[in-house]
User: What shape does this take?
Amino acid sequence: MMRYRGFLFTTVLLVASSLFALTSDELATKMSLNNLEVQKAQQEYRLSLLDTQDAKAGRGPTIDLTVAGTYMVNPPLGPITVSTQNLLQQLSDQGIDVSSLEGYPDAYLKLYDGMENMLYTFSLNITQPIFTWGKISNSIKLYEKISQVRFLQAQVLLRKNKSELLGHESALHYLSLMQDLLTQEAESASRLVEISSSNRDNGMLLDEDVLKVRIQAWQVAIALKNVQLQLDNQVLAIQNLCNDTTLTMKDMEYIPDETAMKDLYDRGQDVLVAKATSAMVDNLQILGLLKEVSALTKDISSASVNWKPDFALSSTIGYGGSRFPLIEKDWYRQDAYTLNFTVALKSTIWDGGKKLRDVVRSQEKEESSEVDYQSAVQSIRNQIITQYLQMELVESKIAYQALVIDSDKKDLQQKQQLLESGYGSEVDQLKSLMQLQADQLSLIQLQLDRVTCYQALSYLSGGI
Assistant: This one.
C-alpha cells in the first residue's frame, strides 16, 4: 500500500510539473547553470585564481629537500697510515726526547681506516628573493588583473547568452502568433479556393482567376511551413543554450515587457550612448583591464633588461655521513651537519638585445590596447545609434500599420454587413478578411523587429 502511494505521489508530481511552463527568469537560471560555454568560462576564471596564487607564492621562500644515499665502490679517501720511524723523527724535530724508543723495528700505524662505502646526505635549501626590481609585485598585480578579466568574460558571456535566450523566446512568442494567424488565413484561403472553383464550374470565373487564388493559398501554406521551421530552429537554439534537449515550446512562457521597451526608448539616443560607452559597462571594463595588463607587462619587461640583477638569500642546512640517522649504530658520531648562508646576484649580461626588444614590444602592445579601447567605444556608439534609429523607424511603422489594420477592420465590417444583407459576396468578404490577416502578420513582424532592437539596445547599454 505504501509503495502504491509513493508511486501515485511521484506520478502526480510529474504530471503537475508538465503543466507549468518555465518563466523567462527560470529559463535564464537553467541556462546559467547548464550552458557549456558558461561552464568553460567559469573554469578558466577558477584557473586564473590559481595563477594568482602562484604569483603570490613568488614573494615567499622556495624550500627544496634532497635526500640521497650513495654507495661508493672506491671511496675518494682511503686509509691513512704512518711509519713509527717517521713519527719518532717528527717528535725529535719538535724537541721531544725519544732516545728510549730507538732500536725498535720500523712499523706502520693506521691513523684512519678510510671512508666507508655508504654515504647518506640530507640537504634542505631555502631561497628567499630579496630584490627583483618589482617583477614579483607587478606579476601579482598582472595575474590579479587577468583574473578580473576572466571573471568579467564569464559575466559577459552569461549576459550575452541571456540576451540571445530572450531573443529566441521573443521569436517564439511572435512566431506562435504568426502561426495562429496563418492557420486562420489558410482556412480563409481554402474557402476562397473552394468558392472560386465552384464559380468557375458555373462559368462565372476563368481558370486564370482560380489559378491566382490557388497560388495565393499556396503562398499562405508555404509561409505556414516556413514559420514552423523557424519555430523549430528557435526551440533548438534554446535547447543548445540551456544544454537540455527535452525542452519544448510548451515548457516556455514569455510575455514581452511593453513598459520596459517604452521606458528604454524614452531615454533617448544620447542617454543610451552615454551609458553604453561608460567605463562601467562590462565589455569596456575588460578592455580597460587589458590596458592595465599591457602596462604591467611593460613594467615587468623593463625590470628584466640586462644589467638589472636579482638578489636572493640562499640558506642550506645539510646533514649526512656513513650511517643512516636514528637507524644504524653509532650514527651520532659518524655523521655531521652543515649550515651555509649565501647572498646571490643573478643578471643576464647580454642576450642579443632580446629583452630590449621585449620592452619595445610591450610598449607597442600597450598603445595597441588603447586603440582597441577607443575602437570599441566607437563601435558601441555606432551600434547604439543604428539600433535606436531602427527602433524609431519601427515605432513609426507600427503606428502606420495600426491605422492600416483599423481601415481593414472597417472594410471587413462593411463587407460582412453587405453579405448579411444579401448585397455582397462571400468572395469579397474573404478577400477583405485575408487582407486584414496579412496586415496583422506585418504588424507582428514589426513588433518582433521592435523587440529585437530593444534587446540589442539593452545589451549594449549593460542591461539584461
About this structure: The beta strands are 62-71, 80-83, 108-112, 118-131, 310-321, 336-346. Confidence is low (pLDDT under 50) at residues 1-19.
